[in-house]
Every structure is written in C-alpha cells, then in structure tokens.
C-alpha cells in the first residue's frame, strides 16, 4: 500500500515539475530545492512498481511529446532514449520493480484481477434486483461482497459511486469529475499542466 502512495505522489510531482519550472517564477533556491527532489521522485516512481503510476505517466507524456512545441525535437528524442535505456537496465535485473510488476500482471491474468471480480459480483447482484441500478446499495455498504471475493471493498472510486449511489448519481459524478474537466483541459489547460491523466486514472485503482 505504501508503495502505491510513493508511485502516485512521485507521478504527480514529476508532471507538476515540468510546468512549474517553466511557467512559474521561482527564486533560485526554490528551483535548486525542487530540482534536487526530482531524482528522488524518479527513483520512487520506478521503485514503487505501481502500474497505475506508470500508465498515468505514459498517457500524460503522449500529448507532451506529440504536441508540446516549446521543447526541441532533439530533447524529446533524448528524453525518450534515456527512459528506454533506464527501462532496459531494469529489465536486465530479474529482481527489478518492472519484472516484479510484469510477474504480478501475469498472475492476475490467470487468477483474475480482484477489482474486476468485485465488479462482476456487484453487477450480478444488481441485475437480480434492477432497482439497485437506480438507488445503489449505499456508500460504504459492502455486505454483498462478504465471503464472495478477495476484496472487502471496491478499491475503486468509480465503483464506489456506481454501486453505492446508483447510476443516476454516477452519471452526475462522471459529468463533474471526468467529462467537464476533460473538455476544459483540452480547450484551455493542456498547455499548462499534464495532471489530468493521473487524476482520472489513479481513482480507478483506489477509493477516495
């Protein structure tokens, strides 16, 4: 659990750093301080073996490398090669975080991912009592999952709203927390921050 927190926080720090350094006027000692913390964040990012963080970073970097015009192409290529080289170095070590995460993914492919298994249990229960799709079972009510799955809760903020509050409030939640922020991000803020992908992806793997 602690490794997840390290992965998520380091992802947000790294993505924030790129634009804070560029767009905010900082005193020199602050720039040095934040710069010294950057390698620590990168180390925690890889060491955490947190696949959510890696996915968030990958999605966030796509628009950065494709459409961000203020960084010269050669620096983008150099950055990609540096990251790929570091990943290759980690892959060569059988005990590295990347190989650990890969092995965990292979096991989950065989046994099933616990969050998805939990969702199947809840969907089957809702289909037997269709009114629950409107009312939900109540926030924090996990009685349906008792003795039925590996998880005692949803461990997913989206499931928390859907199964807890029903489909109508779930759509309201998506409107305020996903659709509207995404539209505003694409129209106004994509040049100033890369934080939207992790803020949308991380809640899919943790309840808030």
Structure in words:
- The protein starts with a helix and ends in a 7-residue tail after the last helix.
- The mean pLDDT is 84.
- Helix 1 (2-23) packs antiparallel against helix 2 (28-47) and helix 8 runs antiparallel to helix 9.
- The protein is globular.
- It has 208 residues and is an all-alpha fold.
- The relative contact order is 0.12.
- It is built from 10 helices and no strands.
Provide keyphrases for this structure.
0% strand, 208 residues, globular, mainly alpha
Low-confidence stretches: none
The strand count comes to 0
What's the shape? globular
Helix-strand makeup class? mainly alpha
Short description:
This protein has 208 residues and is mostly helical.
Write the layout of secondary structure elements.
Elements: H1 2-23, H2 28-47, H3 51-67, H4 73-91, H5 97-111, H6 114-128, H7 132-135, H8 157-165, H9 167-189, H10 196-201
Helix pairs in contact: 1-2, 1-3, 8-9
């Amino acid at each position: 659990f602690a490794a997840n927190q390290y992965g998520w926080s380091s992802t947000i720090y790294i993505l924030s750093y790129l634009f804070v350094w560029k767009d905010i006027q900082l005193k020199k000692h602050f720039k040095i301080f934040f710069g010294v913390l950057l390698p620590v964040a990168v180390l925690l990012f890889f060491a955490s073996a947190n696949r959510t963080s890696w996915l968030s970073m990958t999605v966030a970097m796509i628009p950065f490398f494709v459409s961000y015009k203020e960084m010269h192409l050669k620096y983008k290529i150099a950055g990609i090669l540096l990251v790929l080289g570091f990943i290759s170095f980690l892959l060569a070590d059988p005990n590295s975080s990347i190989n650990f995460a890969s092995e965990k993914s292979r096991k989950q492919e065989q046994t099933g991912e616990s969050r998805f298994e939990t969702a199947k249990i809840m969907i089957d229960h809702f289909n037997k009592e269709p009114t629950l799709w409107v009312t939900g079972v109540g926030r924090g009510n996990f009685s349906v999952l008792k003795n039925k799955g590996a998880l005692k809760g949803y461990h997913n903020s989206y499931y928390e709203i859907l199964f807890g509050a029903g489909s109508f409030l779930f759509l309201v939640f998506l409107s305020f927390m996903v659709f509207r922020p995404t539209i505003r991000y694409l129209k106004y803020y994509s040049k100033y921050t890369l934080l939207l992908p992790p803020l949308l992806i991380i809640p899919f793997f943790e309840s808030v």
